[in-house]
Predict the structure of Putative neuraminidase.
Amino acid sequence: MTRIAQGLHPDLRPGQTVLDLPASGVQSHAANLATLPDGSLACVWFGGTQEGLSDICVWFSRLPAGTSTWTAPVRLSHDDGRSEQNPILFNAPDGRLWLLHTAQRAGHQDTAVVRCRTSTDGGLSWDAPRDLLPGSGLFVRQPPVVRRDGAWLLPVFRCRALPGLRWSGDDDDSIVYLSHDQGRSWQTREVPGSSGCVHMNIVPGSAGPDHLLAFYRSRWADRVHRNESTDGGETWSAPQPTPVPNNNSSIQVIRLASGRLAMVCNPVGAEHAQERRVSLYDEIESEDDAAAPLPEASASTADGRRLAFWGTPRAPMALMMSDDDGRSWPMRRDLECGDGYCMSNNSAEQRNRELSYPSIHQSADGQLQVAYTRHRQHIRHVRCDEAWVATLPADAHLPTPLTD
C-alpha cells in the first residue's frame, strides 16, 4: 500500500511517501533496513503472536529498485522453542549478506544467544543458522561496523537478571565484540560506565578515521546517551546524556553523505509517563517464571539500585539531524504522531499503539529510508529527503536543554 505521507502528519509535504510492509502475522516489530547488492531495499523484523512467545521468528522482505511494493515476507528463522528477535542485515566486505538475530526462552532475555546466517546471492538463499557468539544473555540491535584495518566491531548489550528476580533490564550494559577474521572468532572490548545504556549504535566520527561515536537507548528512560572512541573502538569513554529525551525504546543513528548525523527516535522521557509497567514481558508466563518473580514497578531497589522504566509512551516517531557529531540535534521532523500507548504488547486485541524501533538508511540516490513499528501490527516505511528535515525552522522542535 502506498500513500502520500502528508495525509498522516501536517509536517509532511507532497512527494513524501509511506509504504506499509505486508504483515507477517498478528505482531510485527523491530525493523532493520539495508541495500542489497542488486540495489533492492531490504527489511528484516520479527513477527508472530507476541514478543517473547515461541512463535516469534525473523521475517525478510525486499523492495525491488524502481518499484513501490514490498514483496511477501519470507521467514528466516525456525526455532520453535525460542523467541527470535532483533534481526540485523549486514553487507560484509566480501559480498556476503549476513543476518544476525537473538533467540531467547520466553521473556528471559538473560537466556538469549546471538545467531547468524549468511547468503551469497543477496538473500535468495541462506546457509544453516549457527550461534555467532559464545555464551548467553547477549543481545544485538545495531549492525557491525567495519574498521579501516578490516576488523569488525559488533555492538552488543548484556542482559542480566538481579539476584532472585526475573530479567527486567535492570542490570544491562554494553560491550563491543571485535573480530579480525570476518566473524569466525571474537574478542571483547568493555564500555565503561554503560550500565543502563543499551542498543549501542556505532557511527564514524568527524575527527579522523579512528574516531568513532556511539549512541544509546537508556533503560532509565531519561536521555539518549553518547560516547566516543579515538582508537578505532579499542577503548571508549563513559556514555554521557545528550539533550534528546529517550523512553527506554530503540533509536538508530547514521552518518549521511553530507556529513550530518541523522537519528530516528521517540524524543520523550519518563517524566511524560502516566503509568509504569513492571517489565516488557509482564503479560506472558513460562515454566521458568515460577522460580523467580518480577521486580516491583518502582524507581529503585531497597539498596538504591535504579530499575528500568517501562511504559513511557512510544511516540512520536521523529527524524532528527545534527551538525556537531551528535552533541545537539536542532533539526527535527515528526514522521508520525500518536499517543504511543505501550502498557501492553498485545497486538491481537490491538491494545498497543506504539510507533517505535526505527531503522534509518540512506540509499544510493541520497534518499532517507526509515522503517518503524506501527502499533506492533506491521512495519511502516517512510521515504524522504535530507533537505526536508534541514529546512525546518530551528526553533520548531528543539528538545528541552540538558540541565542535569
